[in-house]
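Researcher: Please translate sequence to structure tokens.
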Amino acid sequence: MSESLPISTTGLVKRYGDIAAVNGVDLTVERGDVFGYLGPNGAGKTTLLRILLGLIRPTSGSAKLFGRDPLVDGVRALDGVAGFVEGPRFYSYLSGRKNLELLADYDGDGARSRIDSVLELVELRDRAKDRVGGYSHGMRQRLGIASSLLRQPRLLLLDEPTTGLDPAGMRDMRDLVRRLAGEGITILLSSHLLNEVEDLCNRVAIIRKGGIVYEGPLNELLATAATGYRLRATDPERARVVLLSQGGVDGVSLVEGQLRFTADEEAVGRAAIALGQARIGITALIPETASLEELFLGLTGGESSDHDREAIVA
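Model: Translation complete:
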């Protein structure tokens, strides 16, 4: 099965001196996935993409694309694979179309005939004759995806595609990723933007200091969180005492007139009955499921960006 997987890595390690940018990564991306590869800045996300594209050599382990190792099979391993790392690069003094024509000539296989359709898909057809130097950051990102699509990829690798975009540009890029996924392209999305991953991805891997701390379906990760509740009652202090006496109700606190606690549905039902029997009115009972951000911070120990490390291994 692993031979046909879009991405499979086994024991992948990349060291820079004493620093392990990628540390024993076993990763599986299945056909049709929109797979989120997320972690703090400097955690080694981009290093993995460079290994997958054959741009750098791992210290140990293996990485395969559709069963082919870039170090063994060379450019043949990139058949059906496209994308960009740390932003696409173009000749700024040439038009968007001319840049695509140069890339199409390099790719061959009828790529020139696809230029109009990919420009249409990324909504750049009206600006195709303009010099890339006059493009906004978001337009250059979309042109980067257009250049990738010339190859008719089965697998698209995207490294922080919405970084630096304004809210409208981020929305447009996410819509584009959804359209591409709807056409059956497998997508590996490297990102530190958790709301982006939660919005787009069906499976995720969370990386911390080069190692994976979670890999699997996003909905299963979200389901691991205990459901929290906010309760407003006619007598908050007495309600707190009642909740503290209920089995299965944990973490009870009273903050600014609202009670917060965690419990499963059965325990919540029993607590509501107990509050009624105590003649305490419930004016609001609001469930709150943990966000991907809260789970991410728990798995990564609250780690954020590490600029010194990032400068070496990002």
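Researcher: Any highlights?
Model: Confidence is low (pLDDT under 50) at residues 304-314.
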